[in-house]
Amino acid sequence: MQKTKIAAEIVMQPKGRPAGLQGKWELFVKDMKRDKHLFVLLAPYMVLFLLFTVLPVIISIFFSFTHFNMLEFPSWVGWENYSKLLWNDDVFLIGLKNTLIFAVITGPVSYIACFVFAWLINELNPKVRAFMTLVFFAPSISGNVFFIWQIIFSSDSYGIMNGFLMKIGIIYEPVQWLQDPQYMLAIIILVQLWLSLGTSFLAFIAGLQTVDRTLYEAGAVDGVKNRWQELWFITLPSMRPQLMFGAVIQITASLAVADVAMALAGFPSVQYGAHTIVTHLVDYGTIRFEMGYASAIATVLFILMLGSNLAVQKLLKRVGE
Amino acid sequence: MKLALRLNKKVNRSWQVDALLFLVLGLFGAFMVIPLIYVINNAFKPLDELFIFPPTLFVRNATLENFSDLFQVMKNSWVPFSRYIFNTVFITAVGTAGHILLASAAAYPLAKHKFRGHKTMFTIIVLSLMFSPHVTAIPNYMIMSTLGWIDSYQAVIIPAFAYPLGLYLMKQFMEQIPDALLEAAKIDGANEYRIFWQIVMPLVKPAWLTLLILMMQMLWGTDGGSFIYSEQLKTMHYAMGQIIQGGIARAGVGAAVAVIMMSVPIVTFVLSQSNVIQTMASSGMKD
Known about the structure:
The complex is a heterodimer. By secondary structure, chain A is mainly α.
């Protein structure tokens, strides 16, 4: 009996009060020894994660205060890059404006689309459900097949859209869809939405299948009248964790529009009609090699992404409280 | 009795609204799938059909010409097309296998043990989901050039090992494993490595498949980014881009490559769908 008590005390020790700095250190060493196997398991991943994700963020913030071209030694310039970016770089402001337009439209629309389609698909029987899941998920997993939209919106009359509109007589000559800044943004938003039913869509489908069925029965007894009330009072609150996860994925993706814009509208696009923060970053980072300035762009993007994510998380936490 | 009947049916569903909603679902489903059907049909169209005005969606006289042309075109190129295929398959296979192994190994302690710093570590992982790899592209280039990895496979493969989304999903899924199971193994004298390898890993098979799908989404479509310059190290996605650059004369061949490219991830997803959904059920973010 006595023995087990002592053993229990030893196990309990990390939670006990350490005696001064010396005690804290000993406790630390003891904890480390106890958990050394866990750290061995963690180490390979964590080392690479620190090297390729955490360290780059720190480097990026540091270099954003320097002038650096990869050849000369970096020189400290303080806030110069940022002031140039925000007050003297009209192209950046176009990119910022376009990024925000993309994000404000594709972010919420794709998020709601992910949920609504997942919700409708969930009502189907399992076989049809699996098929429809594939239909909606296929574009996002097909890799870079979005180039097909380049052919659909091709500027000659062989393009599907031009051919179709000419045939039914809405237009009489081909429209330069991807060269005209008037249409560029809308088409990229469309393609971005086409690609956006990805990870969060799957998370929502999975979340809907795990909602406790008895809640619906209880709800019916408590006077839930129709499917909309059911959705609002039962389904959405039960899915809050998945909704928060999905929000992170969609927000991050909607602020990172670049690949689609560059592939469809060209780089640089006509009159910078499809220029975004990321394409601006690509321009300075991989073409002009102004690494200090590019780092400032990356840091602005980082703050924008992290800030909007944290703000939305806060908002979603309040839903239903 | 009346109440019971109503409960067996779903709560007050009017068939009109049902019909409307499923019409909406069908329309958007068509929007999603028609471009893919179009590209598949283009891959089998003979040259004259590719340039009919007005353009047609479906092929009339299907042919495999475009696929044989593809290998013809690529035989004459500097690097044989099979090399691009090999590069893509190699990068995807090694990157995915390494990622699943490393992410699972790191997810197990985070999911099932409390140790110094476990909360901080997981918070950083969650925060890193909140920005895209574009943010870190420039410093990563500097790191790669310091390591001397520019223009090598590892520049694409090794960072993929530590992709945060995989660890996040794996950790959330592992949390469901009952503690009693692990306790029992410990009493039987298994150490942490054996518990991880022989008990936890077999239980999280659905999550492996999910990570496989996610990595495939990322690596199968990679063009090597700014890290790879040598032609013989470039990927299928890059080759596809080159063919499409060839303009409308190569439209059919371009579609053929696209079909080859998209079929692999789609088939993988079809085979693993139920496992992926099972994993995603635990993806939620707790406060």
